[in-house]
Specification:
alpha/beta, 9-stranded mixed β-sheet, 18 helices, 9 strands, globular
Length: about 425
């Protein structure tokens, strides 16, 4: 059966804020086919890496993904289409982003849409002063540097093949150049994964962070080997603690079964990754989320499909049905990685971006949203993207910030005063505005 490509014929959201509200509405409704664009993206500039960290999939299963550097033409085509709607973009995933020599062009292109950008790096490629200056001029928001120790011996135990002197030199020169350029960007986020072999250096790391003008953040690694785990329970992931506490003969519960029960008890629970975020690999394939390490489990390929066709293809639609609890045993979804979600605890990862974006909306964006929401005529070529039924209005109204709700109420009261209630105000709307 041919796929329904009706999305191709529908008008695109007029601006980023309108798209955000549409995405939240579609997520809340558990829509299978979506009109909105993602509000965030994870785009991998390079799947190759210059280190061999023991618990990274690159070392554990090096053939699971092809090594690639994203082609500029593919990146530009994608950003030209989805860039105007993005609030946040991570330019990293499986590899080292600075191995892509056009990384600075990539940052600048994404930033041209006033999108918040973060890069996570091992900083083990020695950057020239010119490259560091360009990094500063690009207005990159956050630079996360993975540095798990302050001595070469400690650092290289996990960051195999790494040279701590290169990392520290890059960080010191970046600090100096930011000072000379009077720039506070990028903010340097020092991520220190805490293991048993490096926890004794945590205090000295805090002192060094002040010298480097970096925000130090201690984090729990994705490690499930007891010999590597920190003695401090704060830096042992909850999943490992639960695994240790479970009886050896305990029967593993189907994760989908547990998720379905949760979905039925909470109608608002629909996976963020399938509505609010797009994950693109360096070779151009698209994954449902950032933890899918095997290329064979990807949902599509931007080299052969348009974004709109891929975003609503058979796999994405089946995944949305599964995650909404509407079609849990669908044959089309049996082979999907979503059936055994590897990160059920991270299915709401993008709500914070959405909340910040809604709260930061300008008065003009709020006014336009209010006008759009009040336009609840029958569907036509010129009517609102959102308004299709009373339930649609109730759903979208419930996720609006207070200021937008007041604007909507004001416009609806105006209709009542003008005597247009018979035509425009339904009982549900009366309840909302009074």
């Amino acid at each position: 059966m041919a796929e329904n490509n009706s999305t191709e014929q529908r008008p695109a959201p007029r601006n980023r804020f309108e798209n955000l509200l549409l995405a939240l509405l579609e997520q809340k409704a558990g829509a299978e086919e979506v009109w909105s664009y993602p509000i965030a993206a994870i785009i991998d500039p390079s799947s190759a890496c210059n280190l061999r960290c023991p618990f990274c999939f690159q070392a554990d299963n090096p053939d699971a993904r092809s090594k690639a550097v994203m082609e500029w033409d593919l990146f530009k085509k994608l950003i030209d289409e989805i860039g105007p709607y993005l609030y946040h973009c991570d330019l990293f995933n499986w590899g080292e982003p600075f191995l892509n020599r056009r990384i600075f062009d990539m940052i600048e292109l994404v930033k041209s849409n006033d999108t918040e950008i973060r890069i996570s790096t091992n900083f083990n490629r020695r950057l020239t002063d010119e490259e560091l200056e360009r990094l500063i001029d690009s207005k990159l928001d956050i630079l996360t540097v993975s540095l798990d120790g302050i001595s070469q011996e400690t650092y290289s135990k996990y960051r195999v093949g790494g040279d701590i002197s290169i990392v520290l030199d890059n960080m010191r020169r970046l600090k100096r150049l930011k000072y000379l350029k009077k720039s506070h960007k990028p903010r340097v986020d020092w991520q220190f994964l805490v293991f048993s072999h490096n926890e004794h250096e945590m205090k000295k790391a805090a002192d060094l962070a002040c010298e480097l003008d970096a925000d130090l953040r201690f984090a729990a690694p994705f490690v499930y080997s007891r010999e590597w785990l920190s003695s401090d329970p704060r830096f042992v992931r909850d999943e490992y603690k639960k695994k240790e506490a479970a009886p050896e003969n305990a029967k593993e519960t189907d994760p989908l079964e547990k998720r379905i029960k949760k979905l039925r008890s909470n109608e608002k629970h629909h996976c963020d990754w399938l509505y609010l975020n797009l994950t693109v690999n360096a070779c151009g394939t698209v994954s449902p989320c950032c933890t899918v390490s095997e290329e064979s489990l990807d949902f599509g390929d931007l080299n052969t499909e348009s974004f709109r066709a891929l975003w609503n293809n058979q796999k994405f639609r089946a995944a949305r049905r599964i995650m909404s609890g509407c079609d849990r045993r669908a044959a089309s979804g049996d082979s999907l990685v979503c059936r055994k979600c590897p990160i059920p605890h991270q299915q709401k990862d993008f709500q914070s971006y959405a909340a910040r974006a809604v709260a930061a909306a300008s008065k003009n964006e709020q006014q336009r949203a209010a006008e759009m929401l009040v336009d609840y005529r029958q569907p036509s070529a010129t009517s609102s993207l959102f308004w299709r039924s009373k339930n649609d209005f109730e759903n979208i109204f419930s996720i609006l910030p207070f200021s937008v709700r007041e604007l909507v109420r004001h416009r609806l009261r105006h209709y009542l005063i003008q005597g247009e209630s018979a035509k425009k105000i339904v009982p549900l709307i009366r309840k909302i505005i009074f």
